Amino acid sequence: MGFGELKEGMGYYVSIFVGLILILKWGLKSVNEWIYETKLGKKKRESLPPGDLGWPFIGNMWSFLRAFKSPDPDSFISAFIQRYGSNGLYKSMMFGSPSIIVTVPEIVRKVLLDDDTFKHGWPESTIEIAGRKSFIGISYEEHKRLRRLTKTPINGHEALSLYIPYIETNVVSALDKWSQMGRIEFLTELRRLTFKIIMYIFLSSEIEHLLEALEKECTILNFGLRAMAINVPGFAYHEAIKARWRLASILDGTINERRKKRETPQGITRKDMLDLLLESEDENGRKLDNEEIIDTLIAYLNAGHESSGHITMWATIFLQANPEVFQTAKEEQEKITKNMPPGQNGLTLNEYRQMEYLSKVIDETLRVVSFSFMTFREAKKDVEFKGYVIPKGWKILLWYRSLHHNPENYSKPKEFNPSRWDGYVPKPGTFLPFGGGSRLCPGNDLAKLEISIFLHHFLLKYKLERENPNCPIRYLPHPRPKDHCPGRVVKVGK
After folding, report:
1. pLDDT band at residue 3, thresholds of 50, 70 and 90?
2. Any idea what DSSP says for residue 433?
3. What class, spelled out in words, does domain 122-381+401-412+433-491 have in CATH?
4. Does residue 305 carry a pLDDT above 90?
5. 92, 99 in Cβ contact below 8 A?
6. What is residue 174's DSSP assignment?
7. 485 is in an annotated binding site
8. Verdict on whether the full-model pTM lies above 0.85
9. ∠ at Cα 323 (319, 325), nearest 5°?
10. Which residues of 51-62 are buried (b: 16+ CB within 10 A; e: fewer)?
11. Whole-angstrom Cα distance, residue 96 to residue 264?
């Protein structure tokens, strides 16, 4: 056999091999479609939005994780747009379920507001960590009752007024302490500060060892909330399950101690959220059991320090990186301080409501960072949008990050520009940093209050010198610098 014949033969076998690989790939990529789409029937199947369900069982999770572990998390959605057009609805297989990704504002808003057609749709693995009686695991009716119980004591006018002195005292003390410590991990210290505040509001606790133990477990738990559900030692989900058990054990003991303390009239000096949860009862006189209270506390403790701590860090970073914005915000805070009534010590809600420019800084931070980049719902019945069908039982992934970073909604969306909010009211469904509808984050007002008080005192007297301003960002479970933002808080004011 001559060289030419050998070469031709090798080419033939290579072609066969490549063909077999492509057929195998096509077959594997069709497995999920066969499992989940065939049962829908031809008409409904043909009405599904464009997209693909990815690899067997894994679905699109590898491409999702690859994008969110890269410097460009938006490449995940961009890939759908490039392949299937900019219609804003894409079928996919995410977190173990057939799903429809939604990036259209009006549809996102419709899904959030229509509780008769859509229910919560968080993955079973997430509910396992957060708790089956948590906000994300309970029915609409139970959620409404629990939200009504907890919203006013957290976000009500009287409650916010009561929290301001405690928040401000701890902020002033923390900033002074950090300025004397030299090098710190700015994000780590902020998370400790916000956790201390939320612990005081919910459990009246400032006990150092209890704060450290609970904060540690909440951190581990948070890392597993959006991880792949691999319950094997060494994986984030497995560690989160163990943290959940330890956290529940600590809180169960705390609740039992409080129940005993409440049996004596002198046992309670001030009512916190735990007392309110223990006192609550439905129309039939049924009180919350320990599991219900534990799941509620875990939800608030975790969200209450993670979101506030991270957003405060990013707002500080953006202010420091934009001197003109910093100066404008500082001048506003100086004016507010100067105009305080004689004899008044500290901020009140009156001063907080005057922080108009600072509020724009915080809204712009929330938009750019998109701390919660998406949320889950599930269709209770077949639903039609834009000529496409979302089948009953399929998940709907409302992709907030895409809404916040879409140039059709915000000019130059990657740019940090608080002035874009001057006289601007975002179109419905385009600005959802705390979600929307009946499941809007119940602690949103408290979070903005905490952030504002911190930034008020930081702007007046401090600056942040980052050790590594070009540090890469990690986007899961939330955007943050990989090094947790080490640096120095430097005192510059009187």
Report:
1. very low
2. B
3. mainly alpha
4. no
5. yes
6. H
7. no
8. yes
9. 60
10. bbbbbeeebbbe
11. 50
Mean pLDDT of 76-102: 95
* Strand-by-strand arrangement of the 375-379 sheet: 89-94, 97-102, 395-398, 375-379, 118-120
Q: Which of 132-136, 202-206, 254-258, 384-388 has the lowest mean pLDDT?
A: 202-206
Q: Which residues contact 452 (CB under 8 A, 6 or more apart)?
A: 352, 355, 358, 359, 362
| 374 Rama sector, left if φ>0, alpha if ψ -120 to 50, beta otherwise | beta
Residue 124 burial (CB count, 10 A): 12
Percent of the chain at pLDDT above 90? 56
How is residue 411 annotated by DSSP?
S
Domain ranges for the chain = 122-381+401-412+433-491
d(CA 119, CA 122): 9
Q: How many residues does the chain have?
A: 494
pLDDT digits (tens, 9 = 90+) for 23-39: 545 445 677 888 888 88
Nearest-angstrom CA–CA distance, 160 and 163: 5
Positive or negative: CA dihedral 128, 130, 131, 134: negative
Q: What is the DSSP letter of 427?
A: P
Q: How does pLDDT run across 425-435, given as a tens digit for each residue?
A: 899 999 999 88
DSSP letter for each residue of 236-295 = HHHHHHHHHHHHHHHHHHHHHHHHHHTTSTTS-SS--HHHHHHH-B-TT-PBP-HHHHHH
What is the number of H-type helices and E-type strands within the chain? 19, 12
Residue 420 CA to residue 393 CA, distance in Å, equals: 39
| Residues ≥6 apart with Cβ < 8 Å to 65 | 228, 476
The alpha carbon dihedral of 173, 176, 180, 183 has a sign of positive
DSSP helix/strand/coil, 371: coil
